[in-house]
UniProtKB/TrEMBL annotation:
The lineage of its organism: Eukaryota, Metazoa, Spiralia, Lophotrochozoa, Mollusca. GO terms for cellular component: cytosol. Residues 1-57 form the HMA domain. This is Copper transport protein ATOX1. PROSITE patterns: HMA_2.
Length: 82
C-alpha cells in the first residue's frame, strides 16, 4: 500500500478491521506493507483496502518466500503492498 505516514497505517487498520473474517492487521510504513491475517480471499481484502484511497497490490502469503505458509488464528496471513 502506498503508505507515507502513521496516518496511512491507521487508515489501513481501520478499514480492514471492519471486515468480518479479518483477525489481525499489522503495518510496516517503511516497507509499505500491510499484513492481514484472514480467512477472506485476496480480492476481497484488496477491495476493502482500496477504500483508503491509496494504491494497493497483493504480494502473496507471508512466509511463502521461505517456503512455509503461515496459518494463524484460522486464517492465512497475506501481504498487501503498493
Amino acid at each position: 500500500m502506498a503508505m507515507t505516514c502513521e496516518g496511512c497505517s491507521a487508515a489501513a487498520k481501520k478499514v480492514m478491521g471492519k471486515l468480518t473474517g479479518v483477525s489481525k492487521v499489522e503495518t510496516d510504513v517503511e516497507k509499505k506493507l500491510v499484513y492481514v491475517t484472514s480467512t477472506l480471499p485476496p480480492d476481497q481484502l484488496l477491495e476493502q483496502l482500496k477504500k483508503t484511497g491509496k494504491e494497493v497490490a497483493y504480494n502473496g502469503i507471508k512466509g511463502t518466500r521461505t517456503g512455509s505458509n503461515m496459518d494463524t488464528a484460522g486464517g492465512i496471513e497475506r501481504i498487501l503492498e503498493k
